[in-house]
Amino acid sequence: MTTFRKLFCACSVLLPLLASPHALAEPALRIGLIPSEDSQSMVESSQQVLDQLEAGLGMPVKPFVATDYNGVIEALRSKKLDVAYLGPFSYVLANKMADSEAFAVAVTKKTGTSAYHSLIITRRDSGIKTLADLKDHTFAFVDPSSTSGHLFPKAGIERAGYQPEELFSRVMFSGSHDASILAVVNRKVDAAAVADRILASAISQGQIKQDDIQIVWSSPDIPESPMVWRKDLDPALKQKLVKALAQVKDVPWGDQGVLNGFQPTTDAAYDVVRDTAKVLDLELSKMK
Question: Which residue intervals define the domain Solute-binding protein family 3/N-terminal in the entry (predicted)?
Protein backbone atom coordinates (compact mmCIF):
# COMPACT_ATOMS: atom_id res chain seq x y z
CA MET A 1 0.00 0.00 0.00
CA THR A 2 2.88 2.32 0.80
CA THR A 3 4.44 1.67 -2.58
CA PHE A 4 1.10 2.36 -4.31
CA ARG A 5 0.73 5.65 -2.47
CA LYS A 6 4.25 6.71 -3.53
CA LEU A 7 3.49 5.93 -7.16
CA PHE A 8 0.17 7.78 -6.96
CA CYS A 9 1.83 10.88 -5.52
CA ALA A 10 4.56 10.81 -8.15
CA CYS A 11 2.02 10.50 -10.96
CA SER A 12 -0.12 13.31 -9.52
CA VAL A 13 2.92 15.62 -9.84
CA LEU A 14 4.09 14.44 -13.28
CA LEU A 15 0.76 14.13 -15.11
CA PRO A 16 -0.01 17.88 -15.28
CA LEU A 17 3.46 18.50 -16.68
CA LEU A 18 3.14 15.73 -19.24
CA ALA A 19 -0.30 16.89 -20.25
CA SER A 20 0.90 20.47 -20.71
CA PRO A 21 4.61 20.58 -21.65
CA HIS A 22 4.51 24.38 -21.98
CA ALA A 23 2.70 24.96 -18.71
CA LEU A 24 5.82 26.30 -17.02
CA ALA A 25 7.16 28.14 -20.08
CA GLU A 26 6.79 31.90 -19.85
CA PRO A 27 5.43 33.47 -23.06
CA ALA A 28 8.16 35.39 -24.88
CA LEU A 29 8.57 37.28 -28.14
CA ARG A 30 11.27 35.65 -30.26
CA ILE A 31 13.01 38.21 -32.45
CA GLY A 32 15.59 37.55 -35.16
CA LEU A 33 18.38 39.98 -36.06
CA ILE A 34 20.32 39.96 -39.33
CA PRO A 35 24.07 39.44 -38.83
CA SER A 36 25.30 42.85 -40.04
CA GLU A 37 27.86 42.54 -37.22
CA ASP A 38 29.09 39.52 -35.27
CA SER A 39 26.39 37.92 -33.13
CA GLN A 40 27.50 39.27 -29.77
CA SER A 41 27.94 42.83 -31.08
CA MET A 42 24.57 42.69 -32.82
CA VAL A 43 22.76 41.76 -29.60
CA GLU A 44 24.72 44.26 -27.52
CA SER A 45 24.05 47.14 -29.93
CA SER A 46 20.34 46.27 -29.94
CA GLN A 47 19.95 45.63 -26.21
CA GLN A 48 18.42 48.98 -25.23
CA VAL A 49 15.85 48.68 -28.01
CA LEU A 50 15.02 45.15 -26.90
CA ASP A 51 14.70 46.32 -23.28
CA GLN A 52 12.25 49.09 -24.24
CA LEU A 53 10.30 46.70 -26.45
CA GLU A 54 10.12 44.21 -23.59
CA ALA A 55 8.79 46.90 -21.26
CA GLY A 56 6.22 48.04 -23.82
CA LEU A 57 4.97 44.52 -24.48
CA GLY A 58 5.04 43.40 -20.87
CA MET A 59 6.68 40.12 -21.86
CA PRO A 60 10.23 38.81 -22.32
CA VAL A 61 11.94 39.47 -25.66
CA LYS A 62 14.49 36.86 -26.71
CA PRO A 63 16.94 37.79 -29.52
CA PHE A 64 18.38 35.39 -32.07
CA VAL A 65 21.22 36.10 -34.51
CA ALA A 66 21.88 33.52 -37.22
CA THR A 67 25.24 32.93 -38.87
CA ASP A 68 23.85 34.28 -42.13
CA TYR A 69 20.78 36.08 -43.50
CA ASN A 70 19.08 32.91 -44.67
CA GLY A 71 19.31 31.47 -41.17
CA VAL A 72 16.90 34.15 -39.93
CA ILE A 73 14.56 33.54 -42.88
CA GLU A 74 14.54 29.80 -42.19
CA ALA A 75 13.82 30.42 -38.49
CA LEU A 76 10.79 32.51 -39.50
CA ARG A 77 9.63 29.85 -41.93
CA SER A 78 9.84 27.11 -39.30
CA LYS A 79 8.06 29.37 -36.78
CA LYS A 80 11.01 29.45 -34.40
CA LEU A 81 10.79 33.26 -34.57
CA ASP A 82 7.82 35.61 -34.23
CA VAL A 83 9.35 38.77 -35.67
CA ALA A 84 12.65 39.73 -37.25
CA TYR A 85 14.69 42.72 -38.30
CA LEU A 86 15.69 42.02 -41.91
CA GLY A 87 17.46 43.75 -44.75
CA PRO A 88 15.16 44.80 -47.63
CA PHE A 89 16.19 41.93 -49.92
CA SER A 90 16.19 39.31 -47.18
CA TYR A 91 12.68 40.60 -46.35
CA VAL A 92 11.56 40.12 -49.96
CA LEU A 93 12.82 36.54 -49.73
CA ALA A 94 11.13 36.02 -46.36
CA ASN A 95 7.87 37.38 -47.76
CA LYS A 96 8.03 34.82 -50.54
CA MET A 97 9.35 31.83 -48.62
CA ALA A 98 8.39 32.33 -44.97
CA ASP A 99 4.97 34.03 -45.23
CA SER A 100 6.29 37.11 -43.47
CA GLU A 101 5.17 40.73 -43.77
CA ALA A 102 6.96 44.06 -43.23
CA PHE A 103 5.13 46.29 -40.76
CA ALA A 104 7.55 48.92 -39.39
CA VAL A 105 10.80 50.75 -40.09
CA ALA A 106 13.06 52.63 -37.72
CA VAL A 107 13.29 56.41 -37.91
CA THR A 108 16.42 58.01 -36.49
CA LYS A 109 16.76 61.44 -34.96
CA LYS A 110 19.77 62.15 -37.14
CA THR A 111 18.15 61.71 -40.54
CA GLY A 112 14.42 61.45 -39.95
CA THR A 113 14.30 59.31 -43.08
CA SER A 114 13.69 55.67 -43.79
CA ALA A 115 16.22 55.10 -46.61
CA TYR A 116 19.92 54.32 -46.89
CA HIS A 117 22.54 53.58 -49.56
CA SER A 118 24.95 50.93 -50.72
CA LEU A 119 28.56 51.98 -51.31
CA ILE A 120 31.50 50.40 -53.06
CA ILE A 121 34.60 51.36 -51.14
CA THR A 122 38.35 50.91 -51.53
CA ARG A 123 41.46 52.29 -49.87
CA ARG A 124 42.31 55.85 -50.83
CA ASP A 125 45.87 54.81 -51.70
CA SER A 126 44.67 52.03 -54.02
CA GLY A 127 44.44 54.23 -57.10
CA ILE A 128 40.90 52.93 -57.70
CA LYS A 129 38.49 55.79 -58.34
CA THR A 130 35.88 54.38 -60.76
CA LEU A 131 34.14 51.09 -61.44
CA ALA A 132 36.36 50.64 -64.50
CA ASP A 133 39.43 50.85 -62.23
CA LEU A 134 38.19 47.73 -60.40
CA LYS A 135 39.22 45.58 -63.36
CA ASP A 136 41.25 42.56 -62.22
CA HIS A 137 41.03 43.50 -58.52
CA THR A 138 39.65 41.43 -55.63
CA PHE A 139 36.20 42.24 -54.26
CA ALA A 140 34.02 41.39 -51.26
CA PHE A 141 30.25 41.23 -51.16
CA VAL A 142 28.58 40.67 -47.78
CA ASP A 143 26.04 37.87 -48.21
CA PRO A 144 24.02 36.61 -51.20
CA SER A 145 20.83 37.83 -49.46
CA SER A 146 22.23 41.23 -48.43
CA THR A 147 20.56 44.24 -50.08
CA SER A 148 23.29 46.84 -49.78
CA GLY A 149 26.07 44.27 -49.54
CA HIS A 150 25.17 42.35 -52.71
CA LEU A 151 21.90 42.96 -54.56
CA PHE A 152 22.13 46.72 -55.23
CA PRO A 153 25.89 46.95 -55.86
CA LYS A 154 25.83 43.95 -58.20
CA ALA A 155 22.92 45.48 -60.10
CA GLY A 156 24.79 48.80 -60.21
CA ILE A 157 27.87 47.11 -61.62
CA GLU A 158 25.79 45.38 -64.31
CA ARG A 159 23.91 48.57 -65.15
CA ALA A 160 27.30 50.21 -65.74
CA GLY A 161 28.04 47.54 -68.35
CA TYR A 162 30.21 45.15 -66.37
CA GLN A 163 29.84 41.56 -65.20
CA PRO A 164 31.30 40.93 -61.72
CA GLU A 165 32.72 37.54 -62.70
CA GLU A 166 34.61 39.22 -65.55
CA LEU A 167 35.44 42.51 -63.83
CA PHE A 168 37.03 41.13 -60.67
CA SER A 169 39.95 38.74 -60.35
CA ARG A 170 38.33 37.17 -57.29
CA VAL A 171 35.00 37.60 -55.47
CA MET A 172 34.26 36.56 -51.89
CA PHE A 173 31.41 36.86 -49.38
CA SER A 174 32.62 38.22 -46.05
CA GLY A 175 29.51 37.43 -43.96
CA SER A 176 29.02 40.93 -42.50
CA HIS A 177 29.44 44.60 -43.40
CA ASP A 178 31.98 45.08 -40.63
CA ALA A 179 34.05 42.21 -42.00
CA SER A 180 33.97 43.72 -45.49
CA ILE A 181 35.13 47.12 -44.22
CA LEU A 182 38.00 45.56 -42.30
CA ALA A 183 38.92 43.38 -45.27
CA VAL A 184 39.43 46.54 -47.33
CA VAL A 185 41.31 48.42 -44.61
CA ASN A 186 43.57 45.43 -43.89
CA ARG A 187 44.24 44.85 -47.61
CA LYS A 188 42.56 41.43 -47.68
CA VAL A 189 40.52 42.63 -50.67
CA ASP A 190 40.88 45.66 -52.92
CA ALA A 191 37.24 46.81 -52.70
CA ALA A 192 33.93 45.91 -51.10
CA ALA A 193 30.22 46.72 -51.05
CA VAL A 194 28.85 47.99 -47.72
CA ALA A 195 25.95 49.97 -46.26
CA ASP A 196 26.67 53.69 -45.84
CA ARG A 197 25.42 53.82 -42.26
CA ILE A 198 27.62 50.90 -41.18
CA LEU A 199 30.65 52.58 -42.73
CA ALA A 200 29.72 55.83 -40.96
CA SER A 201 29.37 53.95 -37.67
CA ALA A 202 32.81 52.34 -38.06
CA ILE A 203 34.33 55.76 -38.70
CA SER A 204 32.55 57.46 -35.78
CA GLN A 205 33.66 54.70 -33.42
CA GLY A 206 37.26 55.11 -34.51
CA GLN A 207 37.53 51.63 -36.01
CA ILE A 208 38.76 53.12 -39.29
CA LYS A 209 39.82 56.56 -40.53
CA GLN A 210 37.63 58.38 -43.03
CA ASP A 211 40.70 59.65 -44.90
CA ASP A 212 41.73 56.04 -45.57
CA ILE A 213 38.55 55.25 -47.52
CA GLN A 214 37.63 56.07 -51.11
CA ILE A 215 33.98 55.77 -52.23
CA VAL A 216 33.86 54.48 -55.79
CA TRP A 217 30.09 54.13 -56.26
CA SER A 218 26.86 54.91 -54.42
CA SER A 219 23.40 53.44 -54.96
CA PRO A 220 20.05 55.20 -55.28
CA ASP A 221 17.84 55.26 -52.17
CA ILE A 222 17.17 51.84 -50.66
CA PRO A 223 14.06 51.45 -48.46
CA GLU A 224 15.03 51.01 -44.84
CA SER A 225 15.45 47.57 -43.32
CA PRO A 226 12.03 46.54 -42.00
CA MET A 227 10.76 44.90 -38.88
CA VAL A 228 8.66 41.94 -40.06
CA TRP A 229 6.29 39.48 -38.48
CA ARG A 230 4.88 36.13 -39.41
CA LYS A 231 1.47 36.72 -40.98
CA ASP A 232 -0.08 34.13 -38.65
CA LEU A 233 1.06 35.93 -35.50
CA ASP A 234 -1.74 36.61 -33.02
CA PRO A 235 -3.58 39.85 -34.08
CA ALA A 236 -3.62 41.14 -30.51
CA LEU A 237 0.16 40.71 -30.27
CA LYS A 238 0.56 42.52 -33.61
CA GLN A 239 -1.30 45.53 -32.24
CA LYS A 240 0.83 45.54 -29.10
CA LEU A 241 4.01 45.31 -31.21
CA VAL A 242 3.09 48.33 -33.36
CA LYS A 243 2.33 50.40 -30.27
CA ALA A 244 5.41 49.27 -28.35
CA LEU A 245 7.81 49.92 -31.25
CA ALA A 246 6.39 53.40 -31.84
CA GLN A 247 7.35 54.24 -28.25
CA VAL A 248 10.95 53.03 -28.54
CA LYS A 249 12.89 56.32 -28.53
CA ASP A 250 16.11 57.97 -27.42
CA VAL A 251 18.14 54.76 -27.56
CA PRO A 252 20.79 53.61 -30.08
CA TRP A 253 19.73 51.00 -32.64
CA GLY A 254 22.82 49.30 -34.00
CA ASP A 255 24.37 51.30 -36.82
CA GLN A 256 21.30 53.47 -37.38
CA GLY A 257 21.95 55.94 -34.58
CA VAL A 258 19.51 57.21 -31.95
CA LEU A 259 15.94 56.11 -32.59
CA ASN A 260 12.89 58.31 -32.82
CA GLY A 261 10.47 55.40 -32.88
CA PHE A 262 9.33 53.02 -35.61
CA GLN A 263 6.85 54.12 -38.25
CA PRO A 264 4.48 51.87 -40.24
CA THR A 265 5.54 50.46 -43.59
CA THR A 266 3.99 48.09 -46.14
CA ASP A 267 5.07 45.30 -48.43
CA ALA A 268 4.68 47.61 -51.46
CA ALA A 269 7.55 49.79 -50.22
CA TYR A 270 9.90 46.98 -51.23
CA ASP A 271 8.81 46.66 -54.85
CA VAL A 272 11.94 48.64 -55.82
CA VAL A 273 13.95 45.79 -54.33
CA ARG A 274 12.00 43.25 -56.37
CA ASP A 275 12.61 45.36 -59.50
CA THR A 276 16.35 45.41 -58.76
CA ALA A 277 16.31 41.62 -58.38
CA LYS A 278 14.84 41.43 -61.89
CA VAL A 279 17.87 43.32 -63.25
CA LEU A 280 19.95 40.37 -62.06
CA ASP A 281 17.45 37.84 -63.43
CA LEU A 282 16.83 36.51 -59.94
CA GLU A 283 13.74 34.33 -59.64
CA LEU A 284 12.67 34.77 -56.03
CA SER A 285 10.46 31.70 -56.14
CA LYS A 286 13.50 29.54 -56.88
CA MET A 287 15.90 31.03 -54.36
CA LYS A 288 16.79 29.08 -51.24
Answer: 28-257
